[in-house]
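Ticket #4471: complex job returned nothing on first submit. Input attached below:
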Amino acid sequence: MSVPLSHVLIVASLMFAMGLGCVVAWRANVIMMLIGIEIMLNAVMLTFVGGSAHWGIADGQLFSLMLMALTSAEVSLALAMVVYLHRRKNTVNTDQFDSMKG
Amino acid sequence: MEATLFYILAAVLLTGILFAITARQAVRSIVYLVTSFFALALMFYLLGAPLIAAFEVIIYAGAIMVLFLFVIMMLELESPEKLPQPHFKNWLPALLLAGAVVGSLVVLLCSRLQAVPPGFVEIPVRQFAFALFKQYGVAVEVVSMQLLFALVGALYLGRRR
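Support reply: We reran it on our side without changes. The output follows.
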């Protein structure tokens, strides 16, 4: 394929900026914050795969595989925590979870 | 031909994500996100990573997003009108941060215009598997332990009392 690496990096950074915006804008909703984190991790995976294809080394693809394992562990724990918090306070609004006054 | 397909897929991906982060209900956002992850998987395939493309479809679009959907439906959230919508003053810092990222990218691309690099190298699955199990075998073991810890933690958090 004849797409320069910089175009792949442009797509990945636009994706990362959108995920960052999602996390910052929806900071009152735990589920949308998790979705934003997913988008950012996918942008990083696209960067890894593009670099791996550019230099012809398999390491970038390996690290995107590791990132997928990390994400599945993180999402399972985070969603279990969302269910736990929803069972306690009956909401997913982050402003309600202020018992540590953080 | 492949380059055209790449740009079409990039447009689908970015549009899907834009709709996902501005959707009013979390379920719609998940559906848009599944669409854009399918486009991302095809982009991985075009970049010469067929195994990662398959894992993207199986793990991301097939497992993680369905897990999100399952949890959202299980929680029985109140009607979407009552959920706090981000107002303009909530979007403002987000737009500022995203603009900073995009602006730094533009500055970086304008500062040094090098020659167009050659096309991408396709990495065969044999090389991928060789590197994974010969060179990073310890990392595979660590990942398996991490998944076990996540399983134990999820069971602990989800237990009934």
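Chain A is about 75% helix and 0% strand. Closing as resolved unless it happens again.
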